[in-house]
Write a structure and sequence with these properties.
Layout: H1 32-55, H2 61-67, H3 70-77, E1 86-87, H4 92-101, E2 106-111, E3 122-128, H5 129-146, H6 163-167, H7 174-177, E4 183-184, H8 190-198, E5 212-216, E6 222-227, H9 228-235, H10 241-245, E7 260-262, H11 267-276, E8 281-285, E9 291-296, H12 315-322, E10 335-336, H13 342-352, E11 356-360, E12 366-371, H14 372-386
Parallel strand pairs: 1-2, 4-5, 7-8, 10-11
Antiparallel strand pairs: 2-3, 5-6, 8-9, 11-12
Helix pairs in contact: 1-13, 8-14, 9-13, 9-14
């Protein structure tokens, strides 16, 4: 039993707690040309590996996903630390501290049983640090509307949160910001998990995209957490058939309308825009519209109350401070072009352990974005096409 009634449920940690994170601005301009060549060479190596898989004997994607199960994902991942859970009565601020302490982006929330109840805990959903921050920002906005700050600062209350915000608990945000419950089993096929678990498709499901799903044992206890990243990493190890050979342009992934923010806005405003656009990441662009970075929920991995004032800094300065000791903080944002294949993009997402790849034009302006959810949707659609006629 961990402090604050956190429990170890003999399982896996949230796979979204990757050690790597792509899509940050390159800050040392005098090395830019050298690093650009090195970056291009790395991506060329990835492309060769992806193309080799595409050129091998084709395998039906539907057959792959129907015959392989979540247990295969668990076997691929190997041993992970136990599942970390949060109690429903944990305060939001404390929940952020606990997630940061464990280097996690999310955790299952459980309604702990009473002392007299021997049936264990009730799973309520998965909450992530980004949803917690959104709840806090909504509360700050409401307080600012009723009692404006003396200095007129929109997010000034990040420097000193009110007692009402400090006292809020996880259960108060369960209706809107905790992903809906989906109970999977390790023997479930990957196609079923993708369609029903991650994409919420089917008559008995809420049509809500989930970034991670919980796997339960027969007693109803959470034993594993599997993320979209896990599925994409598994796909990257297999031949994707005709879908893998199609290009980003052919798949219609160049939309032109990319959710983005200027590099000069504050991190708080960037996250506010992200929540308003209902996306999990934003392209960061300079005055010329060139892609210079990415801000997303993953940048909140170490976020806690002591870091709140950093949210008032310009977005790029915030990213530098949050990733000061990470090598990826000085890399070019991970991107692709319209001519890159689907297999190449899948491999790039998996190898770089990132959640999105921006599609850029010849001037490195973002014209599209490919997310993990996009990958799963394209795979599910391809399997529908391959389904045998009734």
């Amino acid at each position: 039993v961990r402090h604050n009634n956190q429990r170890s449920l003999s399982a896996m940690a949230d796979h979204d707690s990757h050690k790597h994170h792509g899509n940050h601005e390159h800050h040392h301009h005098h090395h830019e040309r050298h690093d650009s060549h090195a970056h291009a060479r790395d991506q060329e190596k990835e492309d060769v590996h992806a193309d080799k898989r595409t050129k091998t004997e084709p395998e039906s994607l539907r057959q792959l996903l129907c015959t392989h199960t979540l247990q295969d994902i668990l076997h691929m991942r190997g041993h992970r630390r136990d599942v970390f859970t949060l109690n429903h009565s944990t305060r939001l601020i404390e929940a952020m501290e606990l997630l940061a302490e464990n280097r996690l982006l999310s955790a299952p929330v459980v309604l702990s049983a009473s002392v007299e109840d021997n049936d264990g805990e009730t799973y309520m959903g998965v909450v992530d640090v980004s949803a917690i921050l959104r709840t806090i920002m909504d509360a700050i906005r409401k307080e600012e509307e009723t009692n404006p700050s003396a200095d007129g600062s929109k997010w000034g209350r990040f420097k000193s949160l009110g007692s009402d915000i400090e006292k809020r608990t996880l259960i108060t945000m369960m209706d809107s910001d905790v992903q809906l419950e989906y109970k999977g089993e390790a023997k479930e096929s990957l196609l079923t998990a993708i369609r029903e678990g991650f994409l919420g498709l089917g008559p008995d499901h809420p049509d809500v995209v989930c970034h991670r799903i919980a796997i339960f044992n027969p007693r109803g206890f959470i034993i594993h957490i599997i993320s979209q990243s896990d599925i994409v990493a598994y796909l990257a190890q297999h031949n994707l058939g005709p879908l893998g050979a199609q290009t980003v342009g052919e798949l219609g992934l160049i939309t032109g309308n990319i959710a983005s923010v200027s590099s000069s806005v504050s991190a708080a405003d960037a996250f506010d825009t992200m929540y308003a656009r209902k996306v999990s990441g934003l392209a960061v662009v300079d005055e010329a519209g060139v892609l210079v970075g990415n801000i997303s929920a993953s940048d909140l991995r170490s976020m806690h109350k002591g870091h709140f004032p950093k949210l008032l800094k310009p977005v790029l300065e915030f990213l530098r401070s949050e990733h000061a000791h990470a090598s990826h903080a000085t890399e070019h944002p991970i991107s692709c072009t319209a001519t890159d294949t689907f297999a190449t993009v899948v491999h790039r997402l998996a190898s770089q352990k990132i959640h999105r790849v921006y599609v850029v034009d010849t001037d490195r302006r973002p014209v599209g974005v490919v997310t993990l959810t996009d990958i799963l949707e394209l795979v599910a659609n391809e399997c529908e096409k391959e389904a045998p006629a009734p």
